[in-house]
Recover the amino acids of this structure.
């Protein structure tokens, strides 16, 4: 399907197919949604379906023994559907809807093994952390709607990304763009909301591959690319304040995550941090104006990161569920297919040039970053990131596949065909994909920007190419130097201690504990929220309720007062009156003596009195 | 067709009497039969309702107490119809929630009749009669069939709402003395140019506002609610959250907005602040609860806060949307601890506003409407959304995940009968979430008309 829709976008450069419809009419306003197909959406469709297919096949093997096999595939399909919907939305609202559904799918899949408390905690963390970003997104969406009156991206000139719509947005566009970026920060695991992504590794490994490496986390980058006109509106020399924020967030994330990855021991966590770091790289690329470069890296990353995760899954499967790389080792001979494909993935991720897709896209990002007019600093940070990436990937490979066999790898075995086949397919993608990425024939770049591509070999030779070759080489060499004998007993160092930990124990602990960011959040944000919760409860129970009851008490006091007035005043008065009445009664009963004469006498007197009264009136 | 609305009000009342002639063990089926009849009547009403026409339809008007201008005057517009349908839908669930003796069913039916009456009456005296008529069964239901602390909770509930009602009554007496009418339509016509003037206007406004604010309830008049929900039997909690609180919201739309547009415009920001307090503090308080029913109670306050946010922002789209958020909030049902966690999750996710389910539509419309008017307040309100999510996720996980607790291992899953009841509701939640047009069709004309009234 996605290949079919890919075709028209190939034939016409800058193709844009739009189909809008009315969702509902409320009051006298109609809310319209729509679908959109353009090169950006088309390449994402290809990537998602292809990677998704590999992962589905892989899961058949990986989840074979699970009792909730059907539920797993239902969730996975639900996720894919939501993700595809996200990509082809022509409305920010529809995109947001799919965005939330993707978040839900992620929640369900991370917490798939519900009987594990750690999985439940990770799922909760993921859902809530991303939701913080989503609320920013939601506000941005409302603001945009309030300004431009439509949420359709393209609507024959009236959409919010087209000139007329953008003109209506005006000066508040920076805030809108940044609010929408909040959503991307949450979903793509950017600093400071990156904390959920490594924890999300609690889910089954295919989930980590599909959601937390290849597709879902890419949604944030995709979102920024999709609403790029909002970010770049009013740009001077390609720089706006919102884009500058994007760059710095990206740089921080890329460097920080790469540092943390060096000190992790869990095979999946290392990959998770590398994902965070790579996403930071893409954000930088978008921020400095290289939308096409960022998207290309996104696609390339989708392939090789899925490959790495599935490889890790295969390793874990082979080692009977062990995830600690220090307990593995020597798997090279036991799992040859996994090893060779993993090595390809590793080289693509580290950015080894020429044959691996990741190398070319990273090249291009470095190239655009180097020309950012604001500051050279991001460029240098990214170069440092390149070295670090090569370093931690080398460390991982050495621990897992080289050296002696350790505890977990004693009875390891190669995974079944149904799991290795997807690895091979993805590995070939990671290599073959580079064909359309090289500067010699930058077909994909021009496809995304809507220009025709030419073949020109001279462009292959670029100064940055040599630079990154040197840097990657340095990273790998450093890694080999440090970790060559990592698993073995040294003269001074015990075998289960990381060489870096031995050399710099404090620095290592700082990095291994993820720079204490989780703890910082727990002590500040979470503690504060929980305090407010307790305070609200307390206010309710003791203040507002007491206040109302206080009014009640005043009422009661008043009641007591009136009661006593009743008792002493009125009642007493009534009592008195009663006594008086009784006396009167006695008097009256005396009057009713029964003697006619007396009655007649009284009547006569009364009559006389009445006559006198009338006479007086007249 | 004449008499449909009166029939709607009378069916549950007659049913309540009929319950005592039926044998005790058939009480529930009899009550459900009465419900089916009423629901059928409501559906016929829907068929006869002309969604394109403006104003009150299917009016029935008879003289009642001419001396004070009180008429028997009932009729429906889109808003009323929607709430009538909602009532017909929710009450059966309250019956299904647990098996009780027939006094319980009889009181519930009386409450149902009172709800129908409240949602259709177009004259204040009649409206007030029904409004109060719902109070007494609720009080008795909590007091007789409630859990621990039921006496205290019932008394608190009764005193709070009753004092509110008295204040409202005084407000209306003031209006009557000044303008000589109890008729909603007449008063609304006058309201456009200022119903009353000077101090009297503010006094009447304050009285009516207080009555409705307690009923909804709006922060800080909400403290009766957690106690009441906690002690009330599950079925009653459901009706309290699903319907009785709607009476308050409906009152705001039907009475306060049309009658006092100027006053609301003046003190609007303060009312918004109250709504925001409901939205932010209630879920925070919910977070700190260990009792599931109390938690749901606080979240219900939070939801009503959204409604109020929408109303006070007095935006075109918000008026109706405020009703929708709650339109299928089967909050109370959640308390039937682990029946079917999947179904409960659907309800919870709907409640925290996940797109694709009914909650999101209302939420989106409310926020859209209020953002255009007061962006800053709306931004604060978004915090409420976050806290709600936290609370729901926590609750869901406490119930469903982790190792199975020993005490829970004998809980039965959904019975077939319950499944039959739940499936249509779930489908309805999805239907509203995905294609809400059918519901908006009922409302649209009313909303447009109301917007014209306010602008």
């Amino acid at each position: 399907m996605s290949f079919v829709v890919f075709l028209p976008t190939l034939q016409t450069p800058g193709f844009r197919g739009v189909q809008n419809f009315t969702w509902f009419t409320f009051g006298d306003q109609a809310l319209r949604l729509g679908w959109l197909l353009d090169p950006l959406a088309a390449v994402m469709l290809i990537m998602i379906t292809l990677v998704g297919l590999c992962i589905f096949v892989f899961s058949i093997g990986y989840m074979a023994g699970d009792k909730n096999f059907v539920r797993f595939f239902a969730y996975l399909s639900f996720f894919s559907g939501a993700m595809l919907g996200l990509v082809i939305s022509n409305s920010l609202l529809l995109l947001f809807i799919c965005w939330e559904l993707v978040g839900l799918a992620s929640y369900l899949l991370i917490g798939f093994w519900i009987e594990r408390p750690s999985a439940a905690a990770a799922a909760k963390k993921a859902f809530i952390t991303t939701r913080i970003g989503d609320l920013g997104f939601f506000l941005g969406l409302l603001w945009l709607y309030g300004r431009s009156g439509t949420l359709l991206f393209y609507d024959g000139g009236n959409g919010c990304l087209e000139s007329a719509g953008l003109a209506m947005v005006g000066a508040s566009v920076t805030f809108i763009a940044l609010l929408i970026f909040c959503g991307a920060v949450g979903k793509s695991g950017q600093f400071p909301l990156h904390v959920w992504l490594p924890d999300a590794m609690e889910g089954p490994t295919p989930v980590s591959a599909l959601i937390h490496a290849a597709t879902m986390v890419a949604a944030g980058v995709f979102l920024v690319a999709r609403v790029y006109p909002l970010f770049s509106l009013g740009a001077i020399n390609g720089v706006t304040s919102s884009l500058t924020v994007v760059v710095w967030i990206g740089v921080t994330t890329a460097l920080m995550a790469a540092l943390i990855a060096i000190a992790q021991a869990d095979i999946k966590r290392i990959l998770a941090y590398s994902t965070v770091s790579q996403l930071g790289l893409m954000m930088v690329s978008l921020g400095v104006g290289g939308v096409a470069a960022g998207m290309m890296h996104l696609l390339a990353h989708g392939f090789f990161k899925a490959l790495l995760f599935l490889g890790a899954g295969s390793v874990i499967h082979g080692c009977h569920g062990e995830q600690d790389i220090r307990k593995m080792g020597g798997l090279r001979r036991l799992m040859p297919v996994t090893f060779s494909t993993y090595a390809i993935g590793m080289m693509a991720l580290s950015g080894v040039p020429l044959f691996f897709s990741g190398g070319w896209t990273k090249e291009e990002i470095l190239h655009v970053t180097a020309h950012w007019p604001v500051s050279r600093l991001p460029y240098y940070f990214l170069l440092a990131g390149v070295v670090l990436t090569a370093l931690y990937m080398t460390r991982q490979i050495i621990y897992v596949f080289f050296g002696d066999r350790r505890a977990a790898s004693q009875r390891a075995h190669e995974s079944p065909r149904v799991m290795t086949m997807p690895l091979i397919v993805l590995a070939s993608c990671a290599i073959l994909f580079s064909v359309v990425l090289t500067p010699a024939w930058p077909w994909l770049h021009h496809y995304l920007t809507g220009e025709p591509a030419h073949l020109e070999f001279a462009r292959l030779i670029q100064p940055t190419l040599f630079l990154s070759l040197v840097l990657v080489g340095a990273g790998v060499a450093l890694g080999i130097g440090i970790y060559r004998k990592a698993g073995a007993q040294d003269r001074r160092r015990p075998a289960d201690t990381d060489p870096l930990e031995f050399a710099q124990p404090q620095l290592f602990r700082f990095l291994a504990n993820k720079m204490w960011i989780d703890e910082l959040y727990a002590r500040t944000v979470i503690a504060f929220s929980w305090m407010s919760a307790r305070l609200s409860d307390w206010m309710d129970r003791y203040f507002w309720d007491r206040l109302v009851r206080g009014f009640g008490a005043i009422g009661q006091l008043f009641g007591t007062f009136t009661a006593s007035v009743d008792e002493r005043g009125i009642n007493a008065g009534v009592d008195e009156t009663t006594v008086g009445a009784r006396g009167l009664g006695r008097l009256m009963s005396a009057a009713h003596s029964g003697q006619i004469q007396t009655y007649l006498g009284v009547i006569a007197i009364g009559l006389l009195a009445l006559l006198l009264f009338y006479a007086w009136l007249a | 067709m004449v008499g449909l609305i009166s029939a709607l009000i009378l069916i549950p009342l007659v049913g309540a009497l009929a319950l005592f002639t039926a044998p005790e063990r058939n009480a529930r089926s009899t009550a459900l039969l009465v419900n089916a009849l009423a629901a059928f009547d409501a559906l016929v009403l829907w068929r006869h309702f002309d969604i394109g026409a403006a104003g009150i339809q299917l009016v029935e008007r008879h003289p009642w107490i001419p001396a004070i201008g009180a008429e028997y005057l009932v009729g429906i517009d889109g808003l009323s119809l929607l709430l009538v349908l909602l009532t017909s839908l929710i009450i059966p669930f309250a019956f299904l929630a647990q098996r009780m003796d027939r006094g319980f069913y009889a009181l519930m039916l009386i409450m149902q009749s009172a709800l129908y009456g409240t949602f259709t009456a177009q004259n204040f005296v009649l409206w007030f009669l029904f409004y109060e008529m719902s109070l007494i069964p609720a009080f008795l239901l909590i007091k007789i069939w409630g859990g621990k602390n039921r006496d205290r909770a019932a008394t608190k509930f009764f005193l709070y709402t009753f004092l509110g009602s008295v204040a409202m009554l005084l407000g209306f007496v003031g209006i009557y003395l000044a303008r000589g009418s109890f008729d909603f339509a007449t008063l609304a016509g006058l309201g456009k140019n200022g119903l009353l003037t000077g101090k009297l206007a503010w006094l009447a406004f304050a009285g009516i506002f207080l009555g409705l604010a307690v009923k909804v309830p709006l922060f800080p008049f909400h403290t009766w609610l957690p106690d009441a929900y906690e002690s009330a039997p599950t079925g009653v909690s459901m009706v309290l959250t699903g319907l009785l609180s709607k009476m308050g919201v409906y009152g705001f739309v039907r009475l306060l907005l049309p009658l006092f547009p100027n006053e609301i415009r003046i003190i609007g920001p303060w009312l918004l602040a109250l709504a925001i307090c409901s939205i932010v503090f209630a879920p925070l308080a919910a977070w700190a609860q260990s009792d599931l029913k109390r938690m749901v109670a606080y979240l219900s306050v939070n939801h009503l806060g959204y409604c109020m946010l929408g109303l006070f922002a007095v935006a075109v789209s918000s008026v109706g949307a405020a009703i929708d958020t709650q339109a299928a909030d089967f909050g109370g049902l959640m308390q039937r601890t682990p029946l079917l966690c999947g179904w409960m999750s659907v309800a919870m996710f709907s409640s925290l506003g996940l797109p694709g389910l009914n909650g999101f539509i209302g939420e989106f419309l409310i926020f859209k409407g209020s953002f255009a008017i007061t962006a800053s307040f709306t931004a604060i309100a978004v915090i409420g959304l976050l806290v709600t999510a936290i609370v729901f996720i926590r609750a869901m996980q406490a119930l469903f995940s982790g190792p199975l607790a020993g005490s829970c291992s004998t809980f039965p899953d959904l019975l077939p009968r319950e499944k039959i009841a739940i499936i249509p509701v779930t489908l309805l939640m999805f239907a509203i979430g995905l294609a809400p047009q059918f519901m908006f069709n009922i409302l649209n004309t009313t909303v447009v008309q109301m917007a014209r009234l306010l602008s």
About this structure: Chain A touches chain B through 48 residues (CB under 8 Å).
